[in-house]
Every structure is written in C-alpha cells, then in structure tokens.
Amino acid sequence: MLSDTSRPIIAATAAVVAERIPFITPEFYKRMFGARPDLLDGMFSRSNQITGEQPKALAGSIAAFAIWLLQHPDSYPESVLSRIAHKHASLGLKEDEYPTVYEHLFGAIAADLGDAATPEVVEAWTEVYWLMAHALISMEKNLYASQPNDKPFSPWRVTKKEMTGGNVAVISFEPADDTAVAPARPGQYVSIEVPTPDGIRQPRQFTLIPAPAGTRRIAVKLDPNGEVTPLIHEKLRVGDVYDLSNPYGDLVLRDTQVPLVLASAGIGVTPMLALLHALCERGSQREVIVLHADRSSAEWPLADEMKQLVADLPNARIETWFEEGGDGDHEGYMDISGVSIPWEANVVMCGPLPFLKAVRSQVISSGHPSEQVFYEIFGPDLWLVQGE
Ligand code: FAD
Ligand code: HEM
Fold it and tell me: One Pfam match, by short name (predicted)?
C-alpha cells in the first residue's frame, strides 16, 4: 500500500509522468543498454526496442500501476502483474536485475523532469517502483518454484519441421538433456533463444500446441520483416538443438463448465488448439463455440487439426470468416453480431491487436460481462497499459 506521504505526491504528478513516458523511455533504454549491452543478448527483444513497443509497455506499466494504487488503495492489479511476471519468468529474469532498471529508469526520469524531480517526487516514485518490483519478484519466485527443475532454459532437439497454411512452420522438439520436463498447462507458451548472425541470442515466445507427453510443439508464422522468425524458417533444421524455457502464461483453461467461446485470427489459433485438445482429453461436455478469421481457407494454419478437435467434442461447433471469401461461413472480417453467445460463457480471444479490439468491443457492447473475456496478444501488451 502506498504511504500517506507519497500518496498526495503521486496524485499530483501521475498525469505528468504518464504524459512524459514516451520521452523518458528512449533515454532510459539508451542508458541501460549503454551500461549493460549484455541485456540485449538473450533477454530483451531488439525489435521491440526499434519499434518502441516494449519500452512503452515497461515504463508505462509503472505509471498505470501508480494510478491503480490511487484508485484502489487496498489492492494490486493482479492480472496485469501476473501477465508481466509470466513473461519475465519465461525469460529467466532474476531478482538482482531490478536495481538495474531502477537506476537507469530513474536517471532518465530525473533528466526529463529537471527541477520538477524534487527529492520528494523521486522518493514517492521510488516507492511505487519498489512496490511493483516486489510484487513482481514475489510472483516470479513462486512461478520458478512451481517448476520441476531450476533451469530457466534447457536444450531441446528439433525432431520434425513441416510447413502448414499461411507460411507457418510447425516444429517438434524432444529434450536434449536430462532436465526434468515441466508440464505445460494448455494455452501456455515457451521462450526460444535463437542465435543471430551477429553472434547474440534473441528470445521470442511461442504457444505450445498439442504434442505427446514429454515433447514440445510450436507453430511459427513467418514475419518477413521480423528478426527471429526468418531465422527459424530458414536456418532451423531437424537435429538442431535450441534452448527453450519452461512453460509460462496465464491464458489457461479455467476450471468451470460454463460455455466457452474461442475467437481467433491467423496464427492466433495456437492457444485455441491447446485449449480444444485439453477439453478433448478431459472428455468435456461443455458447449464450445469456435470462431476463426483468416485471409482465406488456404492461409488458416493447422486448419485440419482444429476442425478435427472440434469434431471430437460432443458440443462444439465452428464458424469461419475469410477476408477473401471462398469456402468459409462468412466473407470479410469477423463479425459476431449474428453469433448467439450464451451470457454466462467465457470468451477467449487471440490474434492481432486490431482483431482483439474489434471483437472484444463487439462482445462487450452485446452486454457480455468484461470479466468473462480473456485474451492473449502475440507481442508487448500495450493494451494492458493504455486500456481501450
Ligand atoms: P520481430 O523481430 O519481433 O519484429 C516484429 C516487427 O517489428 C516486424 O514485423 C517489424 O514491423 C518490426 N521490426 C523488426 N525489426 C525491425 C527493424 N530492423 N526495423 C524496423 N522495424 C523492425 N507467434 C507465432 O507465430 N506463433 C505462436 O504461437 C506465438 N505465440 C506467442 C505467444 C506469446 C505469449 C507472445 C508474446 C508472442 C507469440 N508469438 C507467436 C509471436 C512471436 O513471439 C514473435 O513476436 C513473432 O513471431 C515475430 O517475431 P520476429 O522475431 O520474426 O519479429
Ligand atoms: C516485459 C514491466 C522489470 C525485462 C515487460 C512488460 C512489462 C514490464 C509491462 C511487457 C509485458 C508484455 O509483453 O505483455 C516491468 C516492470 C518492471 C520490470 C514494471 C519493474 C518494476 C524488468 C527488469 C528486466 C525486465 C528488471 C530485466 C533487466 C523485460 C523483458 C521483457 C519485459 C526482457 C520482454 C519484452 C522484450 O523482450 O522486449 N516488463 N518490467 N523487466 N521485461 Fe519487464
């Protein structure tokens, strides 16, 4: 809980700090990577730095956390913290790095705010930083402790690589050492460390799709403008060994029997496959409505696998939208106004941000409770920081 001394200072400065975040963050990262270039080797995504997305997410989340503390003095934004902690844990982030971020972030804040960064203001924001850091550190410790091994990454050998619709490589792995294999909850992801031509390693997250026990399988959509997926598509071969993290992620199957709506677009099918597979394994009788949007039926990744899982569930059905028309149920972008969604249903969404925003607002404006709508974004979660 924020102290009585800091509360009025945060209330008076939160808006200014939030507004200055876009200016503070480039300076923060310049300082941090200047002092610690090794953090770009195996920890931070270089592309997120270039696009400026992750910087906004990290620093912006601290301003958002401060505003939350002002509005809800007795609680923390648990789901926001949990999402960040899972991402951090998938990268093997250690507690002793928190002072690094503190030092460079606050150096940048002081430089940007100038005389406005009085000792009282700096002290109040330091309190916010460490409240958030300690909440994250404690969640991350629990996540690490829940794993059957103490290695953030372990080596896995590629056993299969095949292409599927829409330029997606489906890759299977088996353990390449005797590290205990952590069981994955359906919907979780792993980080993979990929060596780059200039001699560093770049991590990216990929959702685990159904695979035999003790193995891993991921589906990697090629981003021609990206750094890592072209390397995975071009360089990764059967027999190669890559480091994979233990599984993390909080978009998992909740223990309930209420109807479930799974809305995906493009490569956003991956968590849905994991959830559908888990329902099949449990012999679930739940009503499941699967909604998928894609450019065309040929682009739809792992389409046959998804259709088969739906067919295997007694109370599941599927509806498709293809931008280019053709053999789907609808032409154009997903529009759920014609889909009758039971009011008690949980809605799980995954796809590009514009898709998520559009479908979420359709669901909410139809009167569906927002706390029953869950989503996964395949990138830094700016939505979480900025809201609608
Ligand atoms: P990046 O290098 O990250 O680039 C992304 C974008 O940044 C590019 O399109 C480009 O616009 C810009 N960019 C990059 N470099 C430059 C540059 N030098 N100059 C200018 N702009 C640049 N993906 C899947 O395919 N399947 C999954 O199952 C999956 N699951 C995920 C689960 C989670 C929880 C998360 C967070 C992500 C998931 N992703 C998944 C996305 C994946 O992690 C990668 O973000 C994605 O594959 C792109 O990686 P990349 O390295 O090719 O692109
Ligand atoms: C990701 C917040 C500390 C490294 C993130 C994200 C947020 C965040 C909001 C984006 C989550 C998402 O992708 O949805 C914070 C806060 C911190 C903190 C509030 C301190 C209180 C740290 C530290 C490090 C770190 C100490 C390491 C030095 C990363 C990395 C990512 C990330 C590598 C993944 C994104 C990328 O690769 O660009 N953090 N973080 N964070 N954080 Fe942190």
Answer: FAD_binding_6
